[in-house]
TrEMBL record, chains A, B, C, D, E, F:
Protein name in the entry: Crotonase/enoyl-CoA hydratase family protein
Highest taxon of source: Bacteria
Signal peptide positions (record): none
Similarity remark: Belongs to the enoyl-CoA hydratase/isomerase family.
NCBIfam families xref list: PRK06142.1
InterPro entries: ClpP/crotonase-like_dom_sf (IPR029045), Ech1-like (IPR045002), Enoyl-CoA_hydra/iso (IPR001753), Enoyl-CoA_hydra_C (IPR014748)
Entry coiled-coil feature ranges: none
Pathway info: Lipid metabolism; fatty acid beta-oxidation
Length: 270, 270, 270, 270, 270, 270
């Protein structure tokens, strides 16, 4: 496993455990963080021995969001020419979006384990994960409005599929904090755990469960869910028909059916 | 009414009651079941005397999903030529999708009454219905991942519009069972009833209520809701404007308004 | 402020308070109401001193929906020529849709405060607002099916993004009444208040909170949320990158960051 | 081969030659014609021994368009109830569209050979074919405007992909006749032949050429071209990547490459 | 007819002749021109006695494009605040687009008659018309690149549907001038006439021909062609089926068919 | 400039001249070629001193298409497991598509200069360029059907926007060769030159012309044209309004207008 400046990455069986590791900075997302997210999820996407990913964070808070020092540096790099600044800023935003897209494009499910503050860029990040779980002390805030900007790396695009429209708008316009209980009822997280230890254990266990399934089935399911979100039902149906034209010829299907008939647990190749 | 091998179909007033009838096989969905669903809903769609449909199932379980014997037969029909197998499998999937699409394309609302297991193909089926109700003992499972495949007849396309994204993914990746209480909170079902008898009675009553409304209004509403799901708001608005250009000239509108003014119950033609 | 026949409009600081004022007619939506909604929200959209809008209604009920006298007048204007009637009706529907679209297209957030009945056209109206709050005695009804027509000014297009699919269909097919408690659980409203006074106070307070934020941030956020709803995630990401290419060069961003660092409250120009 | 009332269908090697056979009625499209087109192309789609189709017409004219007797019959079936008439007409239009869609959905290329008049419904028909060829005496007319209606079975949807926008609109608004020379320059036909005999011979020869290619390659190409027409470039690229994931494992690819290396003509299974 | 500052508008039978009238300024498009285009085409859209429109220009040149004085004025209105400038510019562009959209949204066909220079904004304008005709001395130029900007009122969006992609890009990147002969071959214009007099006569004659057809048929055709351009074939087919559900009940259809059978010329109401 | 194995890259003023350099292999596209295309166009995209690109090829032929040795190697890497082969092939296709997408995503116009054979993958390549020019001896062939597959790296997605639908299908189904004259009439190339020398000179000159324009204007134009191709006209208009909100604040606009008024040639920064 590569060495990262801002992450600890560990592979436990078929599960990659990715831990954001800037606890003294409240896991603020610096240039290094964005770049390493991109690299780590490209690796997780292509290494067949990884079948599920857990994204957690060391320290008291999941993440306070984008590093303000990085924002300041970006501001300092601007010139007086509005057109060329616009070109530069657009490229930069697309680059940051690319880091979080790498989580979504990672063909393996990504489970987020969230404690303490999950603010601003932290919400953009977990919205790109497949499923979210949190501790009782977790709290969430779409903070961009408070730094004078519309969120631009995924929250406003992905969160409306996760929580209801009215709540989404209230959070986005007011920047108010949402606690773990409301997050649970709103569907932002699937379950709440008493503390960080029990949270991470539970999420790793769920990831192991997923990693034991057929990777052809799980990865096809993720592809189909993301495709369905962005297309009409009819297009989604046509796409899965063309996709499964190949995938139903996989050995995994036979192996799974045989196992089920003989009441055994099937084992699948990567 | 035609004779069906795997269904009992009865018309009660303006409501068609469609009962899946393979209770000894846990209502597993065989070739016959798929073909007859297609035929029954084509009939319900075009017979104007049917104005609402209830889909229920005889026996202890709503459905255990696709019949494994049918899967095995399909597997046996494959050759060594991957390309031609792909062509054949794609056609087969589209044919099965077509059966469930017939439920969605049926211009009359379809209400599902669910008891016991509703697994795999059973979920695909009820996701294509308009509304779902269940008994306390009902339980749901997106089982495809456990037979080594991505679901391909509608669950991954339609369910994300019904339940929240995070829960959807957990169910699809893990294949875990969801009980009636969670299904109710998740919005998968609209109400839970103590047992099969009270469930079917209540759902039939709701269907009768719908069947007494103007069929022009109800069927236009279903068309608009499905259109809206698959298009932008602006396109949906334009479509309903073109649609109602004809439909607001219907007698039903006058009859309904007159009835409302005179505090009487309007009666509508089929 | 202009004089309106059916509305009272007041500007409180940066918040426009728009009150529907036909209490003796249960705030039924007459020709005047539709026309004035269009005018008021065009004004609120373009006047930079307005940064948030509260939409409330005088009297016991928010609105009983479209004025039946207006419907009757429209019916009386039809000839025997179906084709030309269709052309006329289509234009009329598009004109009415335009009034409610003006709420959605208003670049400032619109918060609805709802008491008593909110029926038919009233639902179309509040579905076009950003966020909804109500009193305990509020009740909601998609009433169009009971006057023999499919709703055609927004309910069937916008409400499915706000409440779950199964509930949406039940309400639309049956025309049953939903109380404030169910509306709260369904996500139709964000909060419920004991009475009209406390409701309006609370909503005005939320609006003031929003109006104090950077208008560049808030209005960009509304634009992005509506764009995201109608496009794929990928398209939404590209759009916000192009949008923020300009907007991140705004002074508001610098002002907000500086305020945050110095723990002060930033003040933003209109 | 089945017996048809209004068609002669012959299979020559791997090519189906479908001849419209109502020469005494200028091949006007009667109820029988529409129904048999649907049946013939469903057959051509699923019979693997058919690899290309030629659509020609007996007599002096390709087709004068929809049979006016059929239009009259449809008119006679209407009642005084506008709403129910609208429902009936919509179903009928969708049924007729379905016949021509069967040509487009037929997985094998369809080549049209056109002589004399190709008017109204005849244009809708050839626009649904893959490629068009004609005789010098051929002439084309979007005639619907002259019977007081907008064309509704495909011309207005498919022809704009074939000829330029400005010409399309002139033809559609004025109903003027276009001769074979203009049709050639406009791209409506790929080539012009002196008479019906040389036309049919040439088109059959082209069809035989196509029928000798790998059916996996040809049918995949048709699927991709139709998909590309209706989607963005990016979506088209993603779709072909998923499609070819299966199809590149076909034996045809190996057989074709080996043949090419050894300078031999490959022979492909159906 | 209203009085316009920069246009002469005359109604000849059922045809509106709209003449741009700033010949001494080479018909440069000033604030007045944009505003009056919007007003004139809103009128032409809703006045049923207008069934076709001819757009021509007085003087030697059709139009030199946007008035540079107007551009300068816009520049002068900008402040130092990039974000608020962006908001203002976006509104202004959308307002100008709205003027040309009024041509496209006008339900009656619009025929452009072009002489001399048709540059910059002039191309945006004629691209929004249905059909274009020109004199031999006409010449076209996508001039925006030469004033340092990407065209933003329609050329880059509409022209690619009219001329081929490769030519489109060459013209847009280089700003080179295209003469009438190339414009004819490229499909930008449908025909070329020797001089302005013969051009206007011929175009008026074509407009009269269109105006004599059923307005239900012609206007439905325009609606369908624009819808088809912006949607998939399948969506276009569904839309026309819903549209014609009303329109086939129009008297025009019966009148047209009866006239055709009795070899007479039908006359249609507005 | 980096060293490439299969390309010569030279920067002439603001124009990058990219020459494919495997003349002894008829410029067959090997693994190196695909990888280096990706790298070169990523560089051309981000280096602001490059403002236009010419893509030409050394030797007698532009390119014979994909290297069959590479195809063979890919075939050899497949296992017996159809599902995992499908996963691998899909990734590989997406990787190759990514190389040609880099040409399309390069923000600067790319002009292709084509001589001799331009077959198979060569067509995919030039279809991703902005504009194509060729020599008299050039000939084009969509060759994929002859190696038993549907083209999957762009021809079937991009070419239909360049040439007419009927011709597109004939070329794709039959694999017949098209000469330079037909390519010119079909709009595949914008001009034909007598020989390679005059071709390259002319194309470089056109590229220099483009490179002298405002890069803000030219690059915005490319972005808008590609966006327009993949979206409806209305979406394209909205996108350019948001885009130009920033770009019209660029100095280039002022500089260009001032130059035009003073009849001077403006000079623009990169």
């Amino acid at each position: 496993m590569s060495d990262y400046k801002t992450f600890e990455v560990e592979q436990i069986g078929k599960v990659a455990h990715v831990r954001l590791n800037r606890p003294d900075k409240a896991n603020a997302m610096s240039e290094d963080v964005w770049r390493e997210i991109h690299a780590i999820f490209d690796w997780a996407d292509t290494d067949p021995s990884v079948r599920a990913v857990v994204f957690s964070a060391n320290g008291k808070h999941f993440s306070s969001g984008i590093d303000l020092a990085m924002m300041a540096g970006l501001g300092a790099s601007l010139s007086k020419e509005v057109g060329r600044n616009a070109r530069l800023l657009r490229r930069k935003i697309i680059e940051l979006q690319g880091a979080l897209n790498a989580i979504e494009h990672c063909s393996k499910p990504v489970l987020a384990a969230i404690q303490g503050c999950c603010y601003g860029g932290g919400i953009d990040l977990v919205a790109a994960c497949d499923i979210r779980y949190c501790t009782e002390d977790a709290r969430f805030c779409i903070k961009e409005v408070d730094i004078g900007m519309a969120a631009d790396v995924g929250t406003l695009q992905r969160l409306p599929y996760i929580i209801s429209d009215g709540l989404m708008r209230e959070l986005a316009y007011t920047g108010r904090v949402m606690d773990s209980d409301e997050a649970d009822r709103a569907g932002l997280v699937n379950a709440v755990y008493p503390d960080h230890g029990s949270l991470v254990d539970a999420v790793l266990e769920k990831a192991q469960l997923i990693a034991a399934k057929s990777p052809i089935a799980v990865q096809g399911t993720k592809e189909m869910l993301i495709y369905a979100r962005d297309h009409s039902v009819e297009e989604g149906l046509n796409y899965v028909a063309s996709w499964n034209a190949a995938m139903l010829q996989s050995d995994d299907l036979k192996r799974a059916i045989m196992a089920q008939m003989s009441k055994q647990t099937p084992v699948f190749d990567d």
